[in-house]
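Bit of a strange request maybe. I'm writing a small parser for structure token strings and I need a real example to test against, not something I typed by hand. Could someone generate the tokens for this chain?
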Amino acid sequence: MSLPKTVKSWNDVGAGRRSFLTAMGAVGATVATGVPAYASDHARDVRDADGHVDVQLLNITDLHGYLAAAPGGDSTIHGNGGQTYTVGGVAYMAAHLKRIRDGKANSLFFSPGDNFSGWEFDAAVFADEPTIEAFNLLKLDFSTAGNHEFDKSPAMITRHMEEGVPFPVVGQDTSFIDSAGRRFPGADFPFYSGNVQWRGDGADVLPAYNIRYVDGPRGEKIPVGFIHLTAIGTESSSTAYLPAVKTRDELQTVNRLAALLKKRGVNAIVLSMHDGAVAGGDFNGGLNPSGPAYELALQASPDIDVIVTGHWHTRFNMMLPDPNGVPRPFVEAGCHGQLINEINLKLDPRTGKVVRELTVSTNHPNTRTGIAPDPEMRQVVSYWNGQATTRANSTIGRQRGSFLRARNAAGESTMGDLVADWALWAGSRPTDKNFNGNCHPNIPAQLAMVALAPRVGQTVIAGDLVHDPATNGAIPFVRAWRGVGYGDPVVSVWVTGQQIHDALEQQWTTKEGGGIQYAPFAVSKNVRYSFNSGAGVGNRVDPRNVHIDGKALEPTRRYRLATLAYTLVGADGYPALTDFEEPFTHQRDFESFVAFVRQAGTLIPAPTNRVSVLSSSGALRSELGEIVDPVEPLLSDGTPMSRPQAAIVTAARSHDIPYPPC
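Reply from user aminoacidic:
Good idea to test on real output. This should exercise your parser:
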């Protein structure tokens, strides 16, 4: 994904804005659950109706399919004064929503995105259909498309999630039986994005905005407009690598759509954006905000009355001045079901405009204590948990030996060889006809290279495939799923022989302070190469010692290479492969590897003889170089991050960029 540039700190904002916020007391300093942020002191005293039209806006963001509970340290959040809350789970969320909605005639519930295509096994192995069933039950009205909604192509949103069209294989890849005994029917709500367009003709991939009508005091219908943004760079992120689409500038898009809505007579406008900010750790308030959403919030059209963000998995609730100095809510409701944000608007029934000084915003923790979980939603979660357990234990193939990550002196391993062979297979397959994220022809790959132990980022290999004699070498679904992948597709591209050579040379670097570091590639079974361990860094691989299908590498020839999108966007530190032509995106890694095991039927380890060391006197360990496996980062409570999140956090990036979004 496109990472945000460093933006202004709170202290860089003009003195007038700082004093305005201080005078209004609107930065959101609160002391207890559900204590609001007010646009002004007048908002503290106004009652429901009171001559105005009451509108309740509810939103959650970045659920990522975590239906049962928030994972690891994300299950605990802190409010003002350090008070701690245990949060998460859609069964509790359903109960909280019923309480918060009670008595509200004009209530709209939406999401700024990343509802699905995440990292929770129970949802992901069923094509995230459990998440859609949960949102249908929660009565979500509509959603912005986040970057992860695009992980399986735009058609996954429009054709499958919205319309319920299965692809490719019913009951294996999509279209499972839900908790009510129905084949997946699709979402009861639509998706939107104002800045994702087709690269060819510039048309919108999804509708850019929507208008909902609320009831006025005399039965009139008052319009409320919603503008939607998806994170810039979604199309070139490693998880949603989509050559057929591109993202427009956020600020230009927002201001253009705000003007369009005003022209259509819409005088109450909400921005729902899947791009975020950081603003301290107190979910009730905001402190020293920064980030792309904050920068946009200071500049976006004054016609926008509310800005709801997501993507950065952060929690804040505050009022920011628009370019005219008038306060408006600026909020983010965490991730993984931690919070429900509620914004209460007062509309002038004659003009339909928001009476901004009467706006109130509250972040409600989705607590797991003091409230009973919704029984219907609890049954949905339980059903999918049981289905996931059954699928996890199902046998999808067999193996006649173990595939291990343990490397020989040349850096080669049986697990690495298997994964490289899978990447070659994946990069040579036809793609389902419903996949519409590509704009170049699908030309089968001629070789594959997969990073085994990159100096930065993460390797796609998560574990070993150990032979189990007690089951006659059965490979359970879950072992294959968890053994390979962090949510990246295999991509086939044209590169030159010189680039392949240069990438092999980039396996070795000189460490700061001296010594050599070795970040080996695994190569597919049709590749053999030797390197000179005694030569200097940058001069270890002779193209004449690299053979593809038995023929020496030709530096000027083009080759069709299969590798991970993660490598092609430079996330794991091999710059030679970031300049390529005609990319074609294939299936995501863990889903593709499961399909590979299924088709192979039986996996047999091969000798580790694809890479050899040339040395006149026997290679010394210091000559070969030190292999350092990247350590997966931990959450604040010491538990490991999910692999996709770890891959994003540890990817190669500029040091002046803040903690990257997910």
